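Task card 7
Instruction: Convert sequence to C-alpha cells.
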Amino acid sequence: DATNDRPWSSYVDTYDQNGNRVSQVMTFDDGRTVETSFSSGRVLTKKVHDTANNFTGDSTADHFDRDGARLRQGLCRDDGVEIDTTFVNGVRTAETVTDVQDDWNWASYTTTFDASGNAVQRVLYLDNGYEITTNFMDPAVEIA
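Output:
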C-alpha cells in the first residue's frame, strides 16, 4: 500500500500450478499479520497474529468447512488464557477456557451449548482439584 490509504501495508498471495490461490499473508498497519489458506476458492483457515502486541489477543485461528461454516476457533490471549471453541453448522457447541500460565485459581472450564447456541452446562476445574458443574436451566441466560 504505497499511498497508505488502506489498513494494510502489504500482502503476498501464493498460487498452485493451476493458478488457484492457496494462501495469503497480509500485514496490517497496526502490527497484525493475517495468514489465510484457501481450497477451491474458499477460506479453510485464518490465523491472526498480534506481532506488535497492540491487542489483548496474541493470536486467533479460525477453521472453516468447505461451505464456509466455522468449525473451530482458537484464541491465545496476552494474559496466558487460551480459548478453544467448536462449532457445528456455524453454531457454537462447546468452549474450553484454559489458564495456561496458572494465574487464576482455576485450571480450565468448559461450557457446552445447545443447537441454538444457548449455554447448557459449564464444568469448572479448580486448581485445588475440585470440580464445579453448573447447569443452565433457562436458555435465555447468555454466556459471553
